[in-house]
Specification:
The structure holds 2 protein chains of 2 kinds. Chain A is mainly α. Chain A has 6 helices and no strands. Chain B is an alpha+beta fold. Chain B has a 4-stranded antiparallel sheet. In chain B, strands 3-4-5 form a 3-stranded antiparallel sheet, with no helix packed on it. Chain B is elongated, with a radius of gyration of 22 Å. The chains are: A mainly alpha, B alpha+beta. The interface between A and B is medium-sized, with 34 and 27 residues.
Chain lengths: 170, 130
């Protein structure tokens, strides 16, 4: 069990990685606005399974705030939609992790997080735009959440396994 | 420290809870897809820019501009439906969305607060006399 200082330092490292991945992914070209893997969520998930919900919240909040500032989207509607969705996603993942950890693998946790993120994004977009037509995107959101959840969960699983043997900062 | 990536390795990681979750999601995708399909071609287009909203006939080709918080968006109605054909926004998602013509289809530009939604129902024209 790492001590407090190590935990803080590692959470900081994870937050830095999350910001970099978030900004990098925002710059990469993509065919549709919703087609984003959410690479920045890998460190959030690693923080969750390594150090628990509070560390994950710190990483997620820093990712959103610093990522928003760096990519210039801080304060605009897309930022609020993304931040709200990120918060919903964290809430669900933290709940699943604290109550049903035995039931799901890291991949299952990733699917919960990604699907919640997608649906929350649609719900917030609906609130913002006020048009029911947004809800026609639900199947796309579910499918996107499923695929990205599996990929992000798998990545988080690998990173977690690798970092267990990591002696940096000890 | 090589990671052995077998293409199907991840399947063995899945717990039964994961599998149930994936199956439920797939059923939900199928069900929502079925609900969303089969909408008819629309007859009118609602154009919202900021707080202002107006409805136009899809039958009459037109090109015009609306003004949003970051500039001027160009909207077009043509044989293929309606679209945003020019926009001052950064990512141009609304322009790439292309033509929409089915009821309920929409084009949304969040940065410039422009929304197009295809509607059905009666157009403003009572009848066409030839």
């Amino acid at each position: 069990m790492p001590n407090r200082t190590q935990r803080i330092a590692r959470t900081g490292l994870l937050a830095a990685a999350a910001v970099v991945l978030f900004v990098f992914e925002g710059l990469a070209p993509r065919p549709l606005p919703w087609m984003k893997l959410g690479l920045g969520n890998v460190p959030v998930m690693v923080a969750l399974i390594s150090y628990g919900p509070m560390a994950a919240l710190v990483v997620s909040a820093l990712k959103l705030a610093l990522g928003g500032l760096l990519s210039g989207s801080f304060g605009n509607p897309a930022f609020f939609i993304g931040a709200g969705a990120g918060l919903c996603s964290w809430t669900v993942m933290a709940l699943v992790w604290s109550t049903a950890r035995r039931l799901f693998s890291v991949i299952g946790l990733g699917i919960w997080g990604a699907v919640t993120h997608q649906l929350a994004q649609l719900a917030l977009a609906y609130v913002y735009i006020g048009q029911w037509s947004v809800l026609g995107l639900i199947p796309v959101a579910l499918l996107g959440g499923l695929i990205s959840g599996i990929l992000i969960g798998l990545l988080a699983h690998w990173v977690y396994q690798r970092s267990n043997g990591l002696t940096i900062l000890e | 420290m090589a990671i052995a990536i077998n293409r199907w390795e991840w399947l063995s990681l899945l717990t039964s809870g994961d599998r149930v979750l994936i199956v439920i999601l797939m059923v939900a995708i199928g069900a929502t897809l079925r609900m969303g399909m089969g909408s008819d071609p629309g007859t009118r287009i609602a154009v919202r820019s900021g707080a202002e909203s107006r409805v136009y006939d899809l039958g009459q080709p037109a090109v015009w501009q609306v003004y949003g918080p970051i500039g001027e968006s160009e909207i077009a109605i043509g044989p293929a439906g309606a679209r945003i054909q020019a926009s001052p926004c950064l990512h141009q998602h609304c322009v790439h969305r292309g033509w929409v013509h089915r009821q309920g289809d929409s084009v949304v530009c969040i940065p410039n607060e422009v929304v197009l939604v295809v509607l059905g129902g009666q157009t403003g024209i009572d009848a066409v006399v030839r």
